[in-house]
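--- STAGE predict ---
source: upstream dedup step, 1 unique chain passed
mode: sequence only
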Amino acid sequence: MLQNWLNIFIYQLKHNKLFTALNILGLSIGIAGLIFATLYWNDEYSYDKWNPKKDKTFIVMNDLGKGDVWATNSAMTGPYLKSATPYLENYCYFNDYYTRETIQFNGKTELIDKIFSAQNSFFSFFPFEFKYGNPKTALKEPQSIVFSEETAFRLFKNENPIGKQVKYADKFFVVRGVYKIPGKSVVMPSAVTNSIEEDLEARKDRWGFSFGLVLKLKKNSDLPLVAKSLDDFFIENNFKKQAKREGMTIKEYAKAFGEPMKVQLIPFENSRLYKGAYPFPEGTGNLQFLRILMGLSILILLLSIVNYINLATANAIKRAKEVGVRKIIGATKRQIVLQFVFETTLTMLFALLLALVIVEVSLPFYNQLLSKELVLSGSQFFVQLIVIFILVVIVSGVFPAVYISNFEVLSVLKGNFSHTKNGLWLRNSMLVIQFAIAVFFIIGSLIIYQQVQFMTEKDLGFSGSQLMNISFREQKDKEQFERYESIKQEISKIQGVEGISAGAFSIGDDWCSRGGIHYKNNEVVIVNQLGSDFGMLEMLDIKLAKGRFLSEKLASDTISNVLLNETAAKTMHEKNPLDKTIGWNGQDYKVVGIIKDFHYFGLDKEIGPMIFFHINTQKWTQGNIESITVKVSSKDMQQTIASLKSFWIKNVDSEYPFEYNFVDKNFARTFKKYEDQRNLFALLNVVVILIAVFGLFALASFSMERRLKEIAIRKTLGAETNMLLKELSKQYVVFCIIGFLIGIVPAYLLLQKWLENFPFRIDITLLPFFIAFVSLLFLTLTIVLLKAYQATKVDVLKYLKYE
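--- STAGE serialize ---
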C-alpha cells in the first residue's frame, strides 16, 4: 500500500513540478521563519536555567514612585539584613557593571573585558563549576580574584594558578580559583574580585544607592515579610531623619516631599526579560520584541499553510476522478485520508529539510541582526522541531485530505465536481486571508520605517560629530581631577584640538547618577546628576534657554551654583526660576541658568529632569571621571587622533590601550535595536509578499486552467480580449479589497500599541495604508492579468472539439 501511495505521489510530482516547487518553497520559508524565532526564544529563556539557586533568589529594587524604579541599593542595608531579618538564607552585594582593565602577571599584560566585583557569597548565588579552588572560600580573603577558564589560559596557559599574584588596578590580588560557566547567565564575567568590600565599608553609613543586591530566602512565602522589613528600615533610618531635619512630622514630610520609597523584590528566574531597571551587567532582553517576532513568524507560517491548503484544494479538481475511481474499486474514506496525509507528510519533509538549509545559510546574518550567537543544536530545539513538523502536517494535511475524501463518487465521475460552490468558497476565503496578512506586513513595515527614520532625523538638542570620548582610567593614589587638569593643558597644545573638557557622564552610555532636588516645600524630584568641567556643555552645542553657563571666572560656580534643564525647571512652578535656591544633597544651591532640553538616554525615553554642576561642586564626581572629551578639527582629523594617541601612551597611560569613541556614534547605539527591528520587519515583509505571490500565481494558474473551456466558448461568441481580462481578474480585485479591509484593523491597533513605547513618535497617517493597498493591488493585477492574458490566447478548437 505504501509503495502504491509513493508511486502516486511521484506521479503527481512529475506532472505538477511548478506547483509542487512553489508549495515546498513557500512552506520552507514559513518553517524557516518559525525556526529562527524559536532559536531566539530558546536563547532568551535559557539564561540561568542551569542555576539550581534561581527559585529562591530575588533581586532588590527600589520604587521611588511615579514609575521611577532604581535597581541599585544602599550599603547600609547589608548590616541590617544580617542582624535583623530572620527570613534570609543569604545576601550578596555586587557592582552592576563590568570593569575593563589590564591584568599583569610575570611581565605579561592582558586587557580583560568583563571584570566583575561582588561579595564572597557570590558563588552561592551563581554556582559556577570550579576547575581549581573552592567556591565557598574563593572570595573570603581580601584582594582575592577568580578567573574564568578562558582568562586563566590567557594568563597562565595550562598551569594551576591558585596562590599566584596578579596586578590589577594598581593592586596585587591572589588567585583563588578558576571557574567555568555552565550556561548563559545574567552575569558572565571573565574575572571576579571582592574589591567591592572596600566600597561597601566606605559607604556603610551613607544612603547612596550604588550597588546591586540579591537575596536568598529560606521560604518564598516570607517574601512580603522581607519587603515590609526593608521598607520599615528605610523609614526609620532615612525618612524619619529627613523629616526631623526639616522640622516636620512624618505625614507633613510625606505630603511635601512624597511617600517613602518602597522595596520591590523581583523573582530572579526569567528576570532578564523584566522590563525596566536591571542591576546585572549582561543587560535585559526585549520581551515585547521577542513576542512580536514569535507572533509574526507564526503568522508567516500560517500564511504558508493557507497557501498550501488553497493549492491542495484547487489541485483536488484534477484528482477528483482519481478519488472516485479508488472509491469504486473499494478504497475506504480512511484509506484516502491516510494517502493524502502521507503525501502531505512527504511534502512537509522536503520543506523542512529545505528550511533547515535556509536557516543554516542565513544564520550568520540573523545573528548579526540580533547580536546573538544562535546555533542549530540542542535537544530542546530538535524536540520543538519535531512538534512543529507534526503540527504543520496535521493543520495543512488533514483538512485537505478529509475534504478530498468527501467527494461524491457519481458527481466526480460525471465531471461536475469542479462546479461545486464549497471548494470555491474555501479557496476564496483562504485567498482573502493571504491578502489580509500581506496588508498587515506591508503597513507594519512602512510605519516602523517611518518611526525609525523620524528618530534618526530628529534634532537631539546637542551635537557630537567632532567630540571624542577618550577612556580615562583611575590610577592608584592619584586624584582623577588633578590628573585631568595637568593633562588638559598639554592636550590643548596638540594641533587640531579645538577644546577639551571632562565629565562624570557620557552621552550614549545609558548610565547616569541620580539624586533628588526640592524647591521650598515641593515634592522631591528625581534628577539626573551631570557633573562636568567648564566648557563641556558649550562643546556639545547644548543651548541655553535662560541665564548663563557656568564660568571659570566665578569661584561660586564651583561651589554653590548649578544649572537645570527645562524639564527640571518646570517642577519648581516658577515663572522665572533664575537665582532661586533649591535643596540638593542636603545643601542649598542657586540656579544660574536653564538649559534647553536635549536627549541624553535616547529617543525611546522621556527627557527627564537634569541638574548640571561643576565637577568640584560634589566630591563624589571628582573620582568618577571615566573619560576625557576632546573636540577635534574636521581638518586632518586622523592626524590629530594619531597625535593624541602618541601623547596618551607616552604621558598618560602606557599600560592601557588608547580607546575612544565619538559622541554621536555612541548615541546612535541607543536606537540601533530599533533599526534592527526595522530591518528584520522589512525582511519579513519581503518573505510574506513572496509567499503571497507564490500562492496567487499558483491559484490563478489553476483558476485559469479550470476556465479554459469557458474562455474558448466566450471567444467563439465574440468576446474581446479586454472584456475577458476584465471578467477574469474582477474577482481577484474584490478579494484584494476585502483582504485589505480586514488587514488594516489589526495593523492599526498593533502598531499604535508598538508606537506607545516611544515618547517621541510619529502619528499614523493614511499614507502607509494607501501605499499598502496600491502595492497589493498592483501585484495582484500583474500576476492575474499575466495568467489571464495567457489564457485568452488558447486554441479554441482544442477545448471545444469534444463538446
